[in-house]
Amino acid sequence: MSSTAKSIRMAVAALAVAVAAAAGVVAVQAGAAGTTTTYYACLTTTGTLNHVGTTAPTTCATTSRVISWNSVGPRGLAGAPWS
Length: 83
Prior knowledge:
By secondary structure, the chain is α+β, with helices and mostly antiparallel strands. The chain has one helix at residues 3-33; strands at 38-44, 49-53, 64-70.
């Protein structure tokens, strides 16, 4: 695997971790308030988020695309009880 491919995979993995952490915090806050918010951003080919907000960006760079995520996802299955 080339170093460029590794760099892209690392950037995507870091982005996924950052988005998951942010979504977890937002989900806790939104769950307490009982509301759902959709967030939007421009995602670059290097994994950088730009123009993050609650309204879709009107323009993104040609090397970016608009992504969105919800502050509250679907309810997951119950975990196993602790022994």
